């Protein structure tokens, strides 16, 4: 009792912060201490319960709690659609729906199917009708009860009935007013959604906008609406653009200056920059002088002149990731290394194995640039990086913690690395470039590296 009474003297904000940093198992142990602790912890546990589930049984239990909150009118509607109320459903102590902060309608739709004991894929028309009826009631419940939606993940292509479930008395603007993170896929007919977003949301910290390859949007009005929604944000820290059309990319890039003071990370994924003029890229990216992370994944049409010029402004960049690196001009990467200098700590240039030979010459050129301009790297992953080059990097970068190496000979790699690793290196990714693989040798290699170097290894083929 004495310890408990002293804990009560701790300010509410500090106690809440302690709970925020505890693992789930410890939170469950604290639930029954007293009413206040119980309420504080329940609020944390039910912010995003479906995002953390590990089994169908857990999902079923979570949905059972939510359906226990349904009103008589809701059950009447469900009964008309073939969904009966089970006898074991009881009204919960708390209104758990009011605690939800992370909203992902698709998870609710899948959860509804699990609760109804339906198969996950290819349901019958009758099963789909029941699933959608239950999901729409769950949507409505959260629209009416949730106090503060902080993150919203939605694929407009997957569930066209979602917006029809919004009750008339519940405004979309009201639902989105406290949004901090937004991930949207498939937005061709959602101009009103983005207009509302621009009007009521001004403190979103992260936005991911994606479209499927088959539905590139060339609508100027739609692209301008998205641009205005991004422009309205005063605290935007990260932005991801994926599978967007030339029109969308052009308009969105032209407005990056509005978020340049706060923007810390940008990821371009499956983007064709062909139609972007040099001026558009430079005008959009050059103000982003506070950018810490930049990533390109499977991007094409990158104009060397515009991006080299842009790289000159990235003085604070800490992480550069390029997947399918052969599509990116090498001079751009070198300019980033030169400009960011000692700040650059993570460099990942990754492409498929059939590009390994081509990458060897690239790595030699890069190593020369690295040796002159940056010695503070903590992680480096270069496709085609051989053992000799890796040893050179280890000498150049005394703070290196992780390194990826590509080799066809495990034993030679081990012999070359022993005694040459700096104390800071704690993990190495070993990638075999040969199709032949000796399981016993691989297992022995794991043991030897662990015992002699104390390293964590990754990247080797799975052992039998």
Automatic annotation (TrEMBL):
Q: Where is the F-box domain?
A: 4-49
Among InterPro entries, the record links this protein to: F-box-like_dom_sf, F-box_dom, LRR_dom_sf
**What protein name applies here?**
603_t:CDS:1
Q: Where does this protein come from, organism-wise?
A: Ambispora leptoticha
